[in-house]
Specification:
Layout: H1 2-12, H2 27-35, H3 49-71, H4 73-78, E1 81-84, H5 89-110, H6 114-121, H7 136-140, H8 145-154, H9 160-177, H10 180-197, H11 206-228, H12 234-242, H13 252-274, H14 288-293, H15 296-299, H16 319-349, H17 354-368, H18 379-391, E2 395-398
Antiparallel strand pairs: 1-2
Length: about 400
């Protein structure tokens, strides 16, 4: 496994002279698989042969999809590249205002601003937070507005004051959503927007971005833990929650990484061992977030077994393809993901199009979250794609 890990690192550092590339994006997942062997938690179990096969197939064919696309790099870049721009500040303003109104309504129904309730009063507000159905997506959309308004600011479409007001308000909203995933999403977006607008190589800032993101992840986690129980240390709580024995000499990173990677591989193993060819969903698991949000499960009596409900249980990026089509699904979708990610990586890198930069940022977030679940199948991801497409409709064509 160590040889395999070093070989993967060699491959990902060889891609187009960019540290942030389609292969490096899956490194957290690769590292999680590697880390599993240490069995830090009593909740971990020996993975079944089917699970190991699914993991190997996914990694191998994802790499294959990336490499095949890179072999056709010249033909991809020969086509005309559309220089998309964001033209209407007013439209983005309206989306921001609407999102803020929904946010304030949610806070009023929750009883205050959740982050400060948790921080000051040590109350477990996370489970009692109120979200307006469907419309809460407009609140989550605020995560990308610091990047959009930074783009406006650098193109002299908004002033410095307006940009910093939007930045402050957006951070305030993100803190009170209490979602570390959305916070990471916002950081990833800003990282690529800053690099593109200022024509800076992402290699120069990737280490700083990773450190900052990791610190914010731990800080927000600390606030959530303190709101639940402030009588013990964060490490002790995480050990108990993750099933790591008290006497085991590990640090907060060890336990946190184990909790967010190894535990999800345990869930994946449980799902794979409980499903058989008669229970494959043939698409219903991959489309689950759409089906449930739009209430098609009630209208058409679509049922999900509790132990196979990937909407409620986090089984990494592999769970949905396997539950729908078995190893065939894992193989085909791994190749597809590799191709899609690489095409947008090349277009974002070799053009000035802000649309491709934003699309690439979303795909980066999806792959970073691969250790949790399959964000390709999450409705929020597709709403972001749709929003980006909508605000960049007008275009100027250049070679």
């Amino acid at each position: 496994m160590t040889i395999g890990l070093f070989f993967y690192v060699f491959l990902m550092l060889s891609i187009d002279k960019e540290i942030v590339n389609p292969l490096s994006l899956m490194f957290p997942f690769i590292l999680g698989v590697y880390y599993y062997q240490y069995m830090l938690s009593s909740k971990q179990e020996v993975l079944s042969l089917d699970t190991i096969s699914a993991i190997i197939f996914f990694i191998s064919f994802y790499v294959l999809g990336v490499l095949l696309t890179l072999l056709n790099k010249k033909s991809i870049l020969k086509k005309k590249i559309i220089n998309h721009k964001i033209h209407s500040v007013l439209v983005v303003d309206l989306f921001l205002i609407f999102g803020l109104v929904i946010f304030l309504i949610e806070c009023a129904l929750t009883g205050g601003f959740p982050f400060f309730i948790a921080l000051i009063h040590k109350i477990n507000v996370y489970e009692d937070m109120y979200y307006v159905p469907i419309l809460h997506y407009f609140v989550m959309l605020i995560a990308i507005f610091p990047s959009v308004y930074y783009y406006f600011y650098k193109n002299n479409k908004v002033g410095r004051l307006k940009f910093f007001v939007v930045l402050f308000v957006s951070i305030f909203v993100l803190l009170n959503i209490m979602s570390r995933q959305i916070f990471i999403f916002s950081i990833v977006f800003m990282f690529f927007t800053y690099a593109k607008v200022n024509k800076i190589n992402t290699n120069k800032y990737i280490l700083k971005a990773v450190i900052f993101t990791s610190v914010m992840f731990l800080v927000l986690g600390f606030v959530r833990i303190q709101s639940i129980n402030n009588s013990i240390s964060q490490l002790e709580y995480l050990k108990a929650y993750a099933g790591v024995p008290k006497e085991r000499n590990v640090n907060t990173f060890d336990v946190t990484f184990n909790l967010y990677t190894s535990q999800n591989l345990v869930t994946l193993n449980d799902m794979i061992t409980k499903v058989d060819s008669q229970e494959f969903g043939y698409g219903k698991y991959s489309l689950q977030s759409f089906i449930k949000v739009l209430k098609y499960d009630q209208a058409y009596n679509i049922e999900y077994a509790v132990q196979l409900d990937s909407f409620a249980r986090l089984g990494t990026i592999i769970a949905d393809p396997y539950l729908d089509f078995g190893l065939v699904g894992v193989t085909l979708l791994a190749i597809l993901y590799g191709i899609i990610n690489t095409v947008f990586f090349l277009k974002a890198k070799h053009s000035d199009s802000i649309r491709y930069t934003f699309f690439w940022a979303v795909l980066c977030f999806i792959m970073i979250m691969s250790v949790f679940t399959n964000f390709y199948n999450v409705l929020f991801s597709w709403l972001i794609f749709l929003f980006i497409y909508f605000i960049t409709l007008k275009a100027k064509t250049n070679k």
